[in-house]
Amino acid sequence: MPTAADSVLDLPFDAVPDPEEFLRAAMRWHFSPETGSPFWLERASLLDFDPLTDIRTFADLTHFPNLAGELREVRAEDLVPRGYGDRPDVVGVYESGGTTGAPKRIVLLRDWLDRLLGWSSAQLDAHGVPQGVNWLVVAPTGPHMVGDVIKHQTALRGGLAFTVDLDPRWVKKLISEGKGAEAGAYAEHIVDQVAHVLRTQDIGVLMCTPPVLERLAARDDLAKLIEDKVQAINWVGTQMDPDTRHLYRTEVFPRARLYSGYGSTMILGNASERPGLTDDEPCVYDPWSPYMTFSVVDPETGVPVEYGERGQVVMHHVSKSLLMPNNLERDHATRCRPAPGAAQTGDSVADIAPVQEFDNETVIEGVY
């Protein structure tokens, strides 16, 4: 049978808990023998601090070592907190894109998915993305989380989800082997599939990566289809420079809502583009804290950079279903203050761009 959790860990998605109360409750949950996961209970004895007494603020999460790399080999069952009982409601086991080395795996539990969908849907509403319309999702499916979550999101919002699968690992492999022509042919294969769905179905929202959107915009017939049918474009997966974003919003697709998210498998979700930004402002992402929080640091020292300066992104995920703190991501970003009046823990980020090397591997961006 599941074990009762502190009520602060089970709040509705739109209730903002006291960050430090929430954090202390999460430490009790993840490091108590009755409720913690085998993964964290086994590693607790190796830590040089006591999470139950020494983790009091979100700044203290940097005491944890970055254990994300261990998710390449750990048994998926060992990531599920014991407090969920013998039959946890697992939605799926998902993998990272494998940009640098073997993929990392994470477990998605139903209660987190429900909370995430509620929050994400509210963010879409804030950007004027319509409900009751169909989505065309051009994104990784299979072992990747994003495709499955968006199908759930579309159903929640009253539409049908049409999907075109992207295999980011294959594209990155082709690029790393110098097979640019083959990678381009694969991308055109993706665009041809998108074209067929756009021509034959009622699509209100298009979700795709910037490289795919660029190829769609280059085909006059497809650009017109998007202009005539699509009410919102949700771009994800890789960076988009400010000039291109401005061009899409003002000239190429002026009738569509252009909206972005910045996510990672390791935080089981994404940050939202701040609503109300003008076409001339940078794309700022606000995390859903205290569950997902960011800090932007000097990668050599780990010390946060000043606001307005660039550094490397560190992500923390703290929830009932998962603890994954102090995860150094493969992205550079500009450190931004939270939106005025926002009850947010940690930094917002802007101008996302991949680092050149990560874990001694060259970072390759493809269609994802």
How would you characterize the overall build of this protein?
The chain contains 10 helices and 15 strands. It has 368 residues and is of the alpha/beta class. The strands form 3 sheets. Strands 4-3-5-6-7-8-9-13-12-11-10 form an 11-stranded mixed beta sheet, with helices on both faces. It has a two-stranded antiparallel sheet with strand order 1-2. Strands 14-15 form a two-stranded antiparallel sheet. The radius of gyration is 20 Å and the shape is globular.
Q: Care to count the β-strands? A: 15
Discrete helix count = 10
Characterize the overall form: globular
Order of the strands making up the biggest sheet: 4-3-5-6-7-8-9-13-12-11-10
Biggest sheet statistics? 11 strands, mixed
Beta-strand content estimate: 15-25%
Average pLDDT level? 92
Radius of gyration: 20 Å
How much helical structure, as a percent, in the residues? Answer: 25-40%
The first-to-last residue Cα distance is: 40 Å
The H-and-E topology, N to C, reads as: HHHEEHEHEHHEHHEHEEEEEEEEE
Low-confidence stretches: none
- Which structural class fits the helix and strand makeup? alpha/beta
